[in-house]
Amino acid sequence: MNELKSYRVWDVSVRWFHWINVLSVLGLIAVGVVILNAKALGVSGDGKLVLKTVHVWIGYVFALNLLWRLVWAFIGGRYARWRAILPGGRGYLKEVRGYVADLGAGRPRQYLGHNPLGRIAVSLLLLLLLAQAVSGLVLAGTDIFYPPLGGWIAGWVAAPGVDPSTLVANAPQLYDKAAYEAMRDFRKPFIAVHYYGFYVLLAVIAVHVFAVVLTELREGTNLVSAMFTGKKVVSEAPVDGEPAD
Ligand code: HEM
């Protein structure tokens, strides 16, 4: 057995992002599933409004956390950067083939950052999270007149003589009918992205968790605890290694 070495990999920003993201996404999924099944669960119109409001507040935490992570990928440490996340670049396909071949032969290559297949999963996850955040922020405006677009939407649909800042959801007497219908048409593609994106995200989250557990078991690296401590312990010389501390 080779000597075990510990490497500092995930910086504090990446670790906080990861666990705030897990908690907020779980919260959003839980409330989102209730919104989806509101009728079957006997939730009233007012109850649904409360659910949407709670979902939007969790959504703000989620979206700000995601925004910070996307910025951090430009300015953070080596393993937090786009270069370590996005698939592609020189020699990427060769790296994938080598990784898969060695894995199949029972000689898994150990990476400190994401392995070449992990980069595909993480990029897809970030893309789906971004799509949920952008579509959700638009829906927060169209559904309950919340920021960042709520003020603009309210100005669009308020009936003549009604102060847009007084608009609330489910109050058709305050809306200009034609403008409101045009706004609902504008909303359609965003609800479609949010709705289908949710199911795709569920599938990719399942693949991500399964792959992390499988890799931890097969490679013997401590992927899960590394996301708490920031340190990975490996037995082989890592492919993307910096000197150990
Ligand atoms: C990973 C992130 C998210 C997930 C998994 C998620 C999931 C869901 C689901 C399953 C629904 C029900 C869909 C439907 O009613 O057709 C929903 C609705 C909604 N979401 Fe999200 N969401 C996320 C992020 C956000 C964010 C960041 C916001 C805004 C800050 C947001 C705002 C809304 C609103 C306003 C609705 C109500 C749409 C309606 O009228 O039904 N969501 N979300």
Précis, in short:
By secondary structure, this protein is mainly α. It has helices at residues 12-36, 45-75, 82-85, 92-104, 116-144, 150-157, 177-219, 223-229; strands spanning 5-8, 231-234.
Structural notes for this entry:
- By secondary structure, the protein is mainly α.
- Helices cover 65% and strands 3% of the residues.
- It contains 8 helices and 2 strands.
- Strands 1-2 form a two-stranded antiparallel ribbon.
- α1 (12-36) packs antiparallel against α2 (45-75) and α5 (116-144) runs antiparallel to α7.
Report Rg. Answer: 22 Å
Globular, elongated, flat, extended or rod-shaped: what is the shape? Answer: elongated
Structural class: mainly alpha
The succession of helices and strands, N to C, reads: EHHHHHHHHE
Q: Which regions are unreliable across 5 or more consecutive residues at pLDDT < 50?
A: none
State mean pLDDT (0 to 100 scale): 94
Count of helical regions: 8
Helix-strand blueprint:
Elements: E1 5-8, H1 12-36, H2 45-75, H3 82-85, H4 92-104, H5 116-144, H6 150-157, H7 177-219, H8 223-229, E2 231-234
Antiparallel strand pairs: 1-2
Helix pairs in contact: 1-2, 2-5, 5-6, 5-7
Protoporphyrin IX containing FE binds at residues 25, 28-29, 32, 35-36, 52, 55-56, 59-60, 62-63, 129, 132-133, 136-137, 139-140, 143, 191, 194-195, 198, 201.
Question: Keyphrases for this structure?
Answer:
single chain; 245 residues; mainly alpha; two-stranded antiparallel sheet; 8 helices; 65% helix; 3% strand
